[in-house]
Write a structure and sequence with these properties.
Two copies of one chain form a homodimer.
Chain A lengths: L18 H4 L2 H20 L6 H12 L3 E2 H8 L3 H13 L3 E5 L7 E5 L1 H21 L5 H15 L2
Antiparallel strand pairs in A: 1-3, 2-3
Helix pairs in contact in A: 2-6, 3-6, 4-5
Chain B binds a DNA duplex through helix 4 and helix 5.
Chain lengths: ~160, ~160
DNA sequence: TATTGTTATACTCTATAACTATA
DNA sequence: TATAGTTATAGAGTATAACAATA
């Protein structure tokens, strides 16, 4: 329903009652995720990476040999839509496809040295950005928040 | 990066290390919002409403006379993309555009009786669905969660 | 017979430019 | 000169169908 940052121009808007939305977990979680993710999106754009690219890069770096099918499942991206992304990331020399050791249909994905380096750097920077973006929270609150969020979607 | 429910088919996937994503507030907030919102999306599809349509309907019902520009700002939807949505909702007889009392350029949006009725019903049902979708949380935890999320995005 | 990866393609969502009527 | 609402259109993201190769 919504999107990124530099969108709606300023205006004098009087009080709008948004309580019917703000009482919902789904709405608040979405707003909060957008707030944080937009900051990260803007930062990693300097590496010519999108959120989805970074997610793929991190998962491949931490899971050498992961298959396209597994990425598809974890990130909830349809296999056909993953192909172009992987091609691009491979063409940039960040990952490479190697034959899967036991399954002849599958390809194992591996980060290159360059890809591992970029993954480590961005992971660190993103972690720092997250702390700053959630600076209104104490470390304890941040841990509590993540725990409660995971109680919702982890089954 | 992701989307709705009936997406990726099942598979036997061994252990994937997702800790680099699961330590991030943005990632967890996104996953949790998707978990809850997808349930709501599926339910309100029976009223032929999308999440964005319901958001508009609720805001109009609770803010008689709200302008398109204000909706655009609150929901972070670009004005051109709002036009078609409002046309559709108006065509269904749920809202109507009336001349703005003081600003000749603007139109005030008002829920019809039918629209108010649908807003009240869906708001109630969505509230119940949210409770069920977050049933792993106590009422206190749910309140805490919303408070922490709002500390992030409210400025 | 089912699954992995892929191509082609349709569909939906989001963004930009430009116009009008009014402030 | 700026803003509200609108049109037209471009671009990005997400979806389905179908195929070859392998399990």
């Amino acid at each position: 329903m919504t999107a990124s940052s530099p969108r709606t121009p300023p205006q004098a808007l009087q009080q709008i009652d948004t309580s019917s939305l703000e009482s919902l977990v789904g709405y608040n979680a979405r707003r909060a995720s957008m707030f944080v993710v937009d900051i990260i999106r803007e930062h990693i754009a300097s590496y010519d990476l999108r959120i989805v690219d970074l997610s793929i890069l991190l998962l491949v770096a931490h899971n050498p040999g992961i298959t396209s099918r597994q990425l598809s499942s974890v990130l909830d991206i349809l296999p056909p839509n993953l192909v172009g992304m992987l091609n691009m990331i491979e063409k940039r020399g960040l990952i490479e496809r190697k034959p899967h050791p036991v399954d002849g249909r599958a390809m194992g994905l591996h980060a290159t040295d360059s890809g591992s380096e970029l993954a480590a750097q961005t992971e660190s920077e993103v972690g720092q950005l997250e702390i700053e973006a959630t600076s209104h929270l104490t470390a304890t609150e941040r841990k509590t928040l993540i725990r409660l969020l995971q109680k919702i979607y982890r089954r």
